Amino acid sequence: DEDIIKITDSVIIVDSISKVLIDMSNEENAVIKISDEVKGYDVQSWKVEIQKLIASIKELLIDENGEKQTAKLLNGNQDDIIMILVNLGEDESKIRKIIDSEIVYQTLTSSVKKLGEGEEKVIYLPSDIDSWTKDAWVNEVKAIIYASNKLFIEGEGEQKKVNFDKLNGDTNTLLQTVVDLYDDTNENDDLSKVLQSLIIVKTISEQIIKLSKENDMINTNRVISYSLDEWKVEIRALVASSKLVFADETGKIDINNISTDINKLLNNICNLENNPYSENDEVGKILKSCILVDTMIDKINEQSAKGVLVIPSDVIWTDTYQNENIIEGELRKIFRS
Prior knowledge:
about 325 residues, mainly alpha, two-stranded antiparallel ribbon, 4 strands
């Protein structure tokens, strides 16, 4: 805007604004974050940053009703931060314009990361998050906005509010929410879009690991060291297989009342289509989940320990491939028998 350019043409005004911003960032518990590099900008660099800052604020801090949200950002309340992001929508050009300002970029990313700190954290952070580029953050913000609407935003219009209970409360609620996002006829379903957020992938994976530690219901030993890309595949496979094995007739899964009795599990699975060459190979979907495969192997090994089954040391549990031929693994054969 011409007015912004005119204002920032004044060296005195640029110098004054920069000092005010730096003072705000130096306050105890300051929400505004300014790196030492930005604090050391010369007047020309500050002029450009202030122009970008004003342009960003116009996009970021005025909602669809024209209400200024500056106070919400400065208060640093986690619910307000999420709602500000959600109100942006998924317009990539708008997101890029907003984080073009280094101050807004550093402030917003710091606010998001705060949600994953301390005992009261509501998300889990990827280990490499501090090295993310702006492009990576643009993709993450887009994904978080979409995921937020599916996972922890309730209500419509002015009644919209944040409810993190679905994400970090009862694991049963989280699993059911994730299951409801899955559509086995559409690879681009809501679940696949939610899993574009690496923060959400990390959070869901940690909740699954937490569940396995709390009640020894599932085996996550093999997947604990998975990368986030591997977790994306495993979460989708686990949801697909759980829906086949554990869901009731309405498609709901009550994680608190799931039976891990080997007889009941096998009884559920034996009614599924079991043909590795079929497009509707339901057992094949189960075998794609490392967690469910390892859990079933544990249950079968328990029967061996009781003397019910004899398990050869060289048993191959899952399908292997030789050219175009599929060599069925022991699990598939047990399910069929």
